[in-house]
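User: I'm curious what two different proteins look like when written out as structure tokens. Can you demonstrate?

Assistant: Sure. I'll show them one after the other, since each token string lines up with its own sequence. Here's the first protein:
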Amino acid sequence: MNFSKNVINWYSDNKRDLPWRHTIKPYYIWLSEIILQQTQVKQGLPYYESFVKAFPTVFDLAESEEQNVLKLWQGLGYYSRARNLHYTAKYIVKELDGIFPNTYKEIIKLKGIGDYTASAIASIAFGEVAAVVDGNVYRVLSRFYGIDTPINTTKGIKEFKALATELIDQKQPALFNQAIMEFGAQQCKPKNPYCILCPLQSGCVAFQKNKISELPVKLKKLKVKKRYFNYLVIIDSDRNTIIEKRIQKGIWQNLYQFPLIETEKSITISEFKLLASENEFLKHLNFEFNLFNETDIVHKLSHQHLYTKFWIIEVNSLPRKGISPNSIKDYPVPALINEFLSKFKF
């Protein structure tokens, strides 16, 4: 069986009509690939369209304020992607005169770009024979060839990259890369793949050995960390409030939030009173408060779960300069905060 030919033939009949497939301009390919990292197409597509509209060229993206980029990215998660995207746009404009590098070796040097993204851009935009290996490709190759090497190990990464490089169509690298990724996304899906109608069925080891659900193999992730967030929604008599920028590294860097107190466990109202009496920010305030949500709101991230309470703090005057509730919409905030804002009425 000619693996590459079958996958390409399937793609020609089944590919989705997506805007980044109508161009070979590296800026648009790069933009789509960064947005689609750890994001499904149906979720990423509106963001891609919004970014293209707001920043039609790399110069437009480079000239924008980071806050505007983060605001447009709001809700997509993994915000380091947006920060790196903006940084790299400025680098391309300032250091490379706005000209995108045209080889894998040069593209992978850019901030926020790894092997997969560099391979995708190099092959799709410039026709370089550089095999892509993403989650879809891992799944297709591991099942078809019956490979049980864990995909999140150094050995697995090298093994699958070598196999993809061996299989790529030398004359049509862009077509093959897009075909195998689409095949994994649409045909050889994680759950309930269309094996009965699969053009690779006769040569698929996983299908023959009934191991579809067992492949690919991935080592267990690190234990998920639990964190307990207490947001202080401070409101004065004019309904103004306070937000602050998360400047420390980690989740949501450079996004905005209400003042935060992190505790070792979920706290009760009586425990909050004690905490307030000892907290440098609150102990000098004369305030009344109530709890917005008695049950913790659980916000799940890849490696940590946030158990969150929103404490509504009413004061006569704010301890520092605040903003009107209507102004909050102009600031990029985490999805957790945005969800609260959609429910709470100032």
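Here's a second, unrelated protein for contrast:
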Amino acid sequence: MGFFGETIDSIKSIQIRQTLSQIIILGLIVSSALVIWKGLMCVTGSESPVVVVLSESMEPGFARGDILFLTMSEDPIRAGEIIVFNVEGHPISIVHRVIKVHEREDTGEVYVLTKGDNNEVDDRMLYAPGQKWLERQHIMGRAVGFLPYVGWLTIIMTEKPIIKYIVIGALGLLVITSKD
């Protein structure tokens, strides 16, 4: 094999190493994001430390597209707090204000009633059939901070899946084609 054959083999070897390196970098980015998410879950005590407001039900306090930061502690929930909760039969979490708290003295169990600030009536119609109050297991966390409108990218990618695939593809292509 001559000089050119060895050079071509050397170039192919470098290209293979670069491709493998870029795949590893992409994997590290994805795994880093997962580690950060799990770390936030541990620090905040919430199963979902960050959520996006998806409707106008909390306006003017929170607008559609705002990102809320959640925490979950053992402190009692009080009327006036903003909570995020799940209800059986609803695949999407709901962000609303606690308007009433009921605590059973005999068991210590706490029940809460919620309402969106922009809604006319309480949330009982959103709860599971026959359910009048939310219990602790329904609550994902309490809002402790927010970033206005930053969640619009998530809303757009959810409502227009083609955009999500374009963004993911472009980011993947960027990582794979980068030379560093």
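A detail about the second structure: The CA atoms of residues 84 and 179 lie 43 Å apart.
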